[in-house]
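@channel sequence for tomorrow's demo:
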Amino acid sequence: MKYEAGMQILYDVVSKGVFIQFRGRSEFLTGPFASRHEAILAAEDYCRRMGWGGDDHQK
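structure tokens (generated this afternoon):
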């Protein structure tokens, strides 16, 4: 699924956490995640719980 405009997910290799920018909100999931892939999946799950994928914001 395409990311929304302004949606960003950044993996921090030092802390093994993930930074999320979504609909004007910032969040940091501390993890630690075993891999970048796991961190991205967790961040995308967070965004889904916050409404990503709904018809009202898809582009």
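heads up for whoever presents: The CA atoms of residues 4 and 58 lie 6 Å apart.
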